[in-house]
Amino acid sequence: MEDTEKAELLNAFFALIFTAKAGPQESQTLEVGEKVWRKEDFPLVKEDQVRDHLGKLDTHKCMGLDGMHSQVLKELADVIAKPLSIIFERSWRIGEVPKDWRKANVTPVFKKGKKEDPGNYRSASLTSIPGKVMEQLILEVISKHVEEKKVIRSGQHGFTKGKPIS
């Protein structure tokens, strides 16, 4: 099988998985009066949190589409933590992230079995490292909020970190 044929086959397979239908990545508009966070509960993205996350970056991972390598971000954590925390905070408050952080290069990675079978590939998505750091920060904030405010009932505890799945 020629390389072009392989590429077309994988493209068709991934097109079945990734459709243009509404998904979790699309923004949702809240009805007037509907509040997700009370003003006093609204989280702040602090500079030290950003610095901590940057300091824990794996320098052996690939760089994203923005060409920014994790080694650079890790080494410059003290310098860029403040501006990134400002960007993260603003993004969190307005509910929008920079366009470059939403771009990804999706590539097939062979798992095992016959290479001709597109089902034997998984997709790997290379995205912006600052975008990934922001995702981690948001996950922490939401998880903390859910736990502290007891948003999820005990019968749903399988969704909570550190709790056994029944």
Describe the overall structure.
The protein contains six helices and two strands. With 166 residues, the protein is mostly helical. The chain has a domain at 36-149. Strands 1-2 form a two-stranded antiparallel ribbon. Helix 2 packs across helix 4 (77-94) and helix 2 (47-55) packs across helix 6 (129-148). Mean pLDDT is 77; it is low at 22-34. This is Mitochondrial enolase superfamily member 1. It comes from Grus japonensis (Japanese crane).
**Largest sheet features:** 2 strands, antiparallel
Q: Tell me the β content.
A: 5-15%
β-strand number: 2
Write down the overall geometry. Answer: globular
Radius of gyration: 20 Å
Helix content: 40-55%
Distance between the termini: 46 Å
Strand arrangement, major sheet: 1-2
**Secondary-structure element string:** HHHHHEEH
Mean pLDDT: 77
**Helix count, per DSSP?**
6
Unreliable stretches (pLDDT < 50, length at least 5) are: 22-34
Oligomer: single chain
Class derived from helix and strand content: mainly alpha
Short description:
It comes from Grus japonensis. This protein has 166 residues and is mainly α.
